[in-house]
C-alpha cells in the first residue's frame, strides 16, 4: 500500500555512498508520490530513479536545517524547466518558505506552476484528500522539527460471483461497472444494485517519518496505530554520550528502545553520521539496534526501496538501477 524510496540517508554532510536526507513516499494513487525532506542534490538522486517531478504531489520539510532543505531551489527550478504545470504543495516551516522566496527573487527563478505553501506550525492536520491524511507531530531538536504521519486508506470492491449469478448478470463489462459502484438496469428491466453483488474491503497503512529528534518518546501518540517508523539514528549511544546534548540527535539505542516499547512492527533507521559510512560502522549500528529491538529492522541505504504490504509487513524491494535517465 505504501512504498518508500530513500534518496539520501546521511546526516549533516554527504558521503561517497550517501547523500543528505530525502525520502520519496509513494501513495496508492497512480504514479503520485510525496517527498519528505529535500537535502542538497536530491534532484541528482531522482535522476537515477524512475520517479518524475511531474508526478510529485507535494514536499514535506521537517525543519529548516540545510541537510533537509538545500535541495529545494534546484529541484523546483528543474521542474519548471521541464514544463511542470501541476500545482505543488509545500508543507514546511515559515522560515523555509521565506528563504525559498528570497532565493527565487534574487536568482530570477520564475516557477511555471503554483506553489501552495502550508505552514507546519499551526495545525496537526496539514493535508487531507481522498484516501490520504498527513499530520505533523512536534519533535525535540535545536531547530523546531516535526514528524509527518502518513495515513492511507484504500477501499476495494470485491465481486460476489454467486450473487451475480443469482441476479442473472452475465460475465463481461457489466461486472466491471458494478465493481466500480454503478447500479444497473438489465435488459429484462430488473435493477441490480452494486451493494448487493459487491463487498467492500478497506485497507489501511500508517507510517511515521521523523525529522531530527533527540526524544523518540514524543512520537507516542503519532505511532499509536502505525505499522512503520522511519527515524534518524545519527549515533551509537556511546558516541552520543561523548558528543553531548548539543546536536540534539537520537542514538540507535534510544530509537530501538522506543520502537520496542511501543510495539512497532517495522523500524527503518536512517540519517547516519558520516563516521559510520563503512561496513564496520554500519555493523556497529545494526548490532546496537538488534540488542534493543526484535521487530522487522532495516538500516536504510540510498536508493533502497521498501513496500508495506496489506499484511502490515515491510519488505525491501530489489535495488533500483543506478543509472541516469536518458
TrEMBL record:
Coiled-coil portions: none
Cofactor: Zn(2+)
Catalytic residues in the record: 67
Domain of life: Bacteria
Alphabetized UniProt keyword annotations: Endonuclease, Hydrolase, Metal-binding, Nuclease, tRNA processing, Zinc
Keyword Membrane attached: no
GO molecular function, one term: 3'-tRNA processing endoribonuclease activity
Catalytic activity: Endonucleolytic cleavage of RNA, removing extra 3' nucleotides from tRNA precursor, generating 3' termini of tRNAs. A 3'-hydroxy group is left at the tRNA terminus and a 5'-phosphoryl group is left at the trailer molecule
Enzyme Commission no: 3.1.26.11
Keyword check for Transmembrane helix: no
Family from the record: Belongs to the RNase Z family.
Functional note: Zinc phosphodiesterase, which displays some tRNA 3'-processing endonuclease activity. Probably involved in tRNA maturation, by removing a 3'-trailer from precursor tRNA.
Subunit structure: Homodimer.
Protein name: Ribonuclease Z
